[in-house]
């Protein structure tokens, strides 16, 4: 599945360590080949240029305040993200 493929040690060094500088060109988050998600660039732009800047500008002192539980298989993500 996507999460497993994106942690394949043959393609990604130290895949379980958060590293925003890693080359992710081989990641399959948005599919691959003929099954590549057509909206990938619009979605990435919405997250990186709109949603995250709005959150960090509005809540500059936001910090995690509890455990983040992940759920899901194909589309995996946090159920809730408790913050203060
Ligand atoms: C980070 C967020 C997202 C991820 C990781 C993601 C990922 C994917 C993946 C892997 C596919 C399957 C491609 C395939 O197998 O054919 C897909 C298809 C699709 N997604 Fe997304 N998606 C995201 C956000 C969105 C959003 C926000 C929308 C709508 C506003 C959307 C609408 C669609 C549609 C309509 C398809 C089917 C058409 C196509 O493949 O281009 N997705 N997406």
* Anisotropy-based shape: globular
How does the helix and strand content classify structurally?
alpha+beta
Percent helix: 25-40%
State mean pLDDT (0 to 100 scale).
Answer: 93
The value of Rg in angstroms is 15 Å
Number of helices: 2
Let me know the number of strands: 2
| Main sheet: strands, sense, barrel | 2 strands, antiparallel
Describe the structure concisely for a colleague.
With 84 residues, this protein is an alpha+beta fold. The chain contains two helices and two strands, in the order H-H-E-E.
List keywords for this structure.
binds protoporphyrin IX containing FE; 84 residues; two-stranded antiparallel sheet; 2 helices; single chain; 8% strand; 2 strands; alpha+beta
Could you please describe the fold and organization of this structure?
There is one protein chain. Strand 1 and strand 2 (77-80) form a beta hairpin. The protein has 2 helices and 2 strands. The protein has one domain (2-80). With 84 residues, the protein is an alpha+beta fold. The longest helix is centred in the middle third of the chain and has 19 residues, at 40-58. It has helices spanning 2-5, 40-58, and strands spanning 69-71, 77-80. It has a two-stranded antiparallel ribbon. The structure holds protoporphyrin IX containing FE. Protoporphyrin IX containing FE binds at residues 29-31, 35, 37-39, 43.
């Amino acid at each position: 599945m996507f999460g497993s493929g994106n942690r394949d040690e043959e393609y990604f060094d130290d895949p379980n360590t958060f590293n925003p500088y890693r080359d992710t060109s081989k990641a399959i988050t948005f599919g691959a080949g003929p099954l590549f998600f057509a909206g990938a660039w619009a979605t990435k732009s919405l997250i990186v240029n709109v949603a995250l800047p709005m959150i960090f500008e509005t809540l500059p002192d936001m910090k995690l305040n509890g455990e983040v539980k992940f759920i899901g298989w194909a589309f995996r993500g946090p159920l809730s993200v408790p913050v203060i």
